[in-house]
Amino acid sequence: MKVLTACLLAGVSLLARAATIPTGFVKAYNQKFMLGSAEYTLVGSNSYWVGLTGLNSTEMNQAFADIAATGATTVRTWGFNEVTAPINYGAYYQLWTNGTAAVNYGANGLQNFDMVVAAAKANGLRLIVTLTNNWSDYGGMDVYVSQILGAAGYHDDFYTNPTVIAAYKNYINAFVSRYEAEPGILAWELCNEPRCTGSPGTQSGACSTANLTITTWAREISAYIKSIDSNHLVGLGDEGWFNEPSSPYYPYQGGEGIDFNANLAIYTLDYGTLHLYPFSWGQTTDPIGFGNMWITDHATSQKNYNKPVIVEEFGVTNTQNQTTTYTSWYSTILSSGMTGDLIWQAGSYLPSGPTPNDGYTIYPNETTLYEMETQHAAAIKARG
Ligand SMILES: *[C@@H]1O[C@H](CO)[C@@H](O)[C@H](O)[C@H]1NC(C)=O
Ligand SMILES: *[C@@H]1O[C@H](CO)[C@@H](O)[C@H](O)[C@H]1NC(C)=O
Ligand SMILES: *[C@@H]1O[C@H](CO)[C@@H](O)[C@H](O)[C@H]1NC(C)=O
Ligand SMILES: *[C@@H]1O[C@H](CO)[C@@H](O)[C@H](O)[C@H]1NC(C)=O
Ligand SMILES: *[C@@H]1O[C@H](CO)[C@@H](O)[C@H](O)[C@H]1NC(C)=O
Ligand SMILES: *[C@@H]1O[C@H](CO)[C@@H](O)[C@H](O)[C@H]1NC(C)=O
Is residue 313 among the annotated active site residues? Predict the structure, then answer.
């Protein structure tokens, strides 16, 4: 055990010499992120898995080193895993039994997330930490709803039911307070891709942009986070849907219950987020062109509301012309003034095997794509 600890510490300090350990807190100022008086360029990748798939500290360090080698400053990851029975593989942060949640502070709980934060910092990276999920992967919203309200609960009760909201705040309080003074955290995010819709038949019918359901929830939860942690930025983590019902494009029509501009106006949200998946969203006629329009229109909102906006997830799969697509989108990110971006998603070959590949993953030996990330990080840093 002692030998193991010594090895781990030696590994961390070797890496630490190459990277600048983050100190201080990143702030939003007009359309930029700032660290003290210097601009902080938000560029990097997503790695939802780094804390969830049973990696040890050495492997987490390798995964972050592979991201940092592109010139990235920032990684987005999951700060949640709701389970209804203890699991033996990977980490979970909350265990639900009979409608009651217990935060897992143990070695496969928040102590595991401590290792994620330490490994990111050792590689000079800051984390955007998302605190729950619309999707059922790793538990998410539907576990709160079904545990507290049973089978009668609707997916969107997550946004309105007072008992569910209190349970989510309880989790937020445990997680956020633990890292309140931690400069390795860049931002907290309220939810990955919140939508009104759940599985077929699980919507209440009351969740909509007209009823301001998710906007009202986002205002309450973001204000709550600010009340317990004034150091860190707060974002929503949504896909950036506009609320323009007459638009010919589904992502602009507001049907998923998100109004990007209404949310960007929320005082306690420091920046706006958009995701970009033309193939998943039925935008297949001109996926590259759709993406360029989507980026440009969000950059216009960024200017109108004078807040940073980031393309915090984007991708096409390895059968959908990644090189051509990313060349075009990166160029538009740079020219539109879009504040920053995080590609979906990072990958590494580790001693325990390759990290998850959903068809979007870019491993370091995929030299064309990996080199594109590196060139883009340099270009957006140079642009300022
Ligand atoms: C949960 O409820 C079931 C059925 O009422 C009961 O048998 C079980 O002991 C409860 N578990 C806990 C941890 O309270
Ligand atoms: C949101 O997540 C639920 C499961 O939690 C999923 O069934 C639903 O498809 C997601 N919403 C949409 C419209 O993708
Ligand atoms: C708004 O919510 C009410 C219930 O509170 C519901 O009856 C109504 O259909 C909702 N409106 C829309 C446009 O979703
Ligand atoms: C990839 O690009 C080629 C040439 O531009 C085009 O023919 C093909 O349809 C594209 N494939 C996809 C999936 O968009
Ligand atoms: C970390 O995990 C990998 C893969 O299981 C293993 O090869 C390695 O020895 C572990 N390192 C430490 C320090 O435990
Ligand atoms: C990258 O390395 C892995 C593991 O060694 C290998 O399986 C894969 O074929 C390599 N890919 C490329 C594009 O070289």
Answer: yes
